[in-house]
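hiii so um. not sure if this is the right channel but i have a protein structure encoded as tokens and i wanna go backwards to a sequence. like what aa goes where. can anyone help
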């Protein structure tokens, strides 16, 4: 068995565990609604499809944003390697489906860390959720 075929089988096995779905977007600019004054980001979709959310241990960090205290919750998002090329730190993640935990549906995260390795079975990115 070759390395390529072994890696392909391992990636297929990893993707079987990706029962959630998400959309990842990059902010490309912003516009201001002249009537309301609201600033609206313009975005470009980078990825849409299967994923898996993982949390190694329950952990959080307190951050002060202006006058507000915000709790930052770190997670790891696993994506298919080839299909998710181009996912980078700073992009936004929104979970659109979660077969086994309905509380995750609609949650929003920001990509904070990128991990890479030569023989990856899934693309893993560190994501963070801000709660108040």
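sure thing!! here u go:
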């Amino acid at each position: 068995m070759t390395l390529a075929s072994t890696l392909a089988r391992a990636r297929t096995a990893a993707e079987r565990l990706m029962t959630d779905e998400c959309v990842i977007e990059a902010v490309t600019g912003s516009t201001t609604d002249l009537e309301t004054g609201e600033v609206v980001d313009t975005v470009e979709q980078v990825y849409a499809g299967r994923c898996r959310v993982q949390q190694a241990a329950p952990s959080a960090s307190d951050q002060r944003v202006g006058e507000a205290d915000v709790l930052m919750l770190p997670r790891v998002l696993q994506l298919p390697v080839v299909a998710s090329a181009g996912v980078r730190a700073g992009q936004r993640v929104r979970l659109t489906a979660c077969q086994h935990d309905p509380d995750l549906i609609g949650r929003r995260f920001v990509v904070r860390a990128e991990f890479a390795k030569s023989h990856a079975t899934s693309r893993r990115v560190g994501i963070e959720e801000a709660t108040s």
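oh and DSSP finds one helix and seven strands in the chain.
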